[in-house]
Amino acid sequence: MRINSSLDKQSTNSVFAQVGYYLRQKLHYFNPHRYLCAQLGLTIAGMTLFLFTFTRLTISSILFAALVYLVSEQKRKKEVAKLSTSLNQLVSTLAQQEQAIQMTNQKLNQELWERQKTEQFLRKTQQQFRQIAENIEEIIWIASFEFNQLLYISPAYEKIFGRSCDLLYQDPTSWLELVHRRDRKSLKKALEIHKKQAQPISIKFRIVRPNGTVRWLWSQTFPVKNQQNKLYRSTGIVVDITQQKQAESEMRRSLEQEQELNELKSRFISIASHEFRTSLNKIMSSAEILQNADLNLMQQNKYKYVENIKSSTERMIQIIEEFLLIEK
Q: Which CATH number is 170's domain given?
């Protein structure tokens, strides 16, 4: 029996085919009838050949079993090696995945820490913003860009407009009802420009509070963009400038009065200068007549010229007193 020894290069089916072919040949060669006698059963030669053939068959079976074991063991070793390789690859993959998971966890922990820090900063900033907004006299507001939703309004709105903030949250455009009828057109035009051109606006207008009092307001509105550079909010500040307007009105009246007084002074000075010159001329002429008069000048005429000098002097004194009175 000759079998190829390079078992690692032959498949199991090929080995089984070779062994099976050898056994079939031997069984075909062995014919018991050639060695049997009708009276004695087996002859010595037949028995000897039978035993020899049986022994060869037994050895062949053992060899076949050993061959099968070797083939199975070699196949098992290959499978074990393959499995070992797969396990090594799996361990390596798991190690890489574990490392990746650790890095991901570290990144997530860092992001979580940064997020908590950001949220803490935002809460602190929001608290500071509310402390400022709720304790100043100006109105601070935040709304959607289309003004159809009010996001925040400071408590100063109730003090300035005389209406509750809750009513404004329910109807964000209700404040327009309080705008003075003479200022509504210009205010609506400014708001339209803000919506169409997304430009900051600054406008002064009046409101009529529910109690009938009129207040002057100065409103500044600004567009707000998000991270995508898209407009999504509007914010602004409203200042009560009623006292400033009243001061301006009083100053205007003072300027007008001062202008009238200056005009009066100018007219007075013009008239006074004329009166002054007239009085001085009378004094000078009367004095010259008295100085150049003859000793025979009648007493009555002397008295007349002295009275002219006296009346002119009194008139000049009166003009000076009136001038000093105007200066006060």
A: 3.30.450.20
Asked if 217 contacts 160 with a C-beta cutoff of 8 angstroms, the reply is: yes
Asked whether residue 267 falls in the same domain as residue 291, the answer is yes
Domain stop point among 240, 268, 290: 240
What CATH number did the domain enclosing 306 receive? 1.10.287
Domain span holding position 317: 251-327
Give 118-167 pLDDT, tens digit per residue.
888 878 777 777 777 677 888 999 998 888 889 999 999 999 999 999 99
